[in-house]
Amino acid sequence: MRAWQKGRTGVPLVDAGMRELWRTGYMHNRVRMVTASFLIKNMLTDWRIGEAWFWDTLVDADEANNPASWQWVAGSGADAAPYFRVFNPMLQAEKFDPQQEYISRWVPEIGTTDYPGEPIVDMKASRDKALEAFSELKASRPTE
């Protein structure tokens, strides 16, 4: 959890977003979704823990939007994203920060020995584990 909070996960876009949040109290919505997805689905952490951290650190935290956004990413809200949507932070970075300007601004040590060489979780294995857990949960729910 501390690695996520402080932007030391070894996932550049996640780390950039979390560092921006810590230093400025702000983070773009796209990066909010990516960092939330990483915490919930790759780190298998209850969305309420991330929501509480954002509540404490965002300058624009809102008592309706903050939990609703986290529930959307988790796939548990009233108008939620499908539970099987897991943002790939590497692909998101390629698409939305192709020159790595955002990442380089917040993670200047990227590519050096001062930056984690590998993500703190296996991205594919953690995604598969999350999808399996969500599928089992869905299958165990009563149909009516």
From TrEMBL:
Keyword Transcription: no
Keyword Metal-binding assigned: no
GO BP term (any one): response to stress
GO function terms (MF aspect): deoxyribodipyrimidine photo-lyase activity; DNA binding; FAD binding
Assigned keywords, A-Z: Chromophore, FAD, Flavoprotein
InterPro entries: Crypto/Photolyase_FAD-like_sf, Cryptochr/Photolyase_FAD-bd, Cryptochrome/DNA_photolyase_1, DNA_photolyase_1_CS_C
Residue ranges of domain Cryptochrome/DNA photolyase FAD-binding in the record: 2-110
UniProt cross-references to Gene3D superfamilies, sorted A to Z: DNA Cyclobutane Dipyrimidine Photolyase, subunit A, domain 3 (1.10.579.10)
Pfam family, one: FAD_binding_7
Cofactors that this protein relies on: FAD
Stated name of the protein: Unannotated protein
Record organism: freshwater metagenome
